[in-house]
Amino acid sequence: MLRERLLSLEELSEAIAQWRVHRQPRSIPEGLKRNAVALLGQYRKAELLRSLQITHSLLDRWQKRYGEAAAAAEG
């Protein structure tokens, strides 16, 4: 399975901002959510929340869903 390149926080912030401008009535794309969870190891949660303009509960949901999936794939 090919892995997408991990975006930097700045790149991810821009990608989410672009998605918000052009979004359809659906949630943030899964790849962007996974990228945000992956960045938790590099940044403080508060910094991610502020940069991505998302709520704490939203990031927690992503972390629960995609963090566990990533751990299962590695293990």
List keywords for this structure.
75 residues, mainly alpha, 4 helices
Mean pLDDT over all positions? 89
The number of strands is 0
What about the largest sheet?
none
Rounded to an integer, what's the Rg over CA atoms? Answer: 12 Å
Count, helices:
4
Helical content stands at: 55-70%
The percent range for strand residues is under 5%
Ranges where pLDDT stays below 50 over 5 or more residues in a row are: none
Distance between the termini: 16 Å
Estimated structural class: mainly alpha
Overall morphology: globular
Report what the structure shows.
- Helix content is 67%, strand content 0%.
- The protein contains four helices and no strands.
- It has helices at residues 9-22, 30-38, 45-52, 56-74.
- It starts with 8 loop residues before the first helix and ends with a helix.
- The protein is mostly helical.
- The protein has a domain at 29-75.
- α2 packs across α4.
- The mean pLDDT is 89.
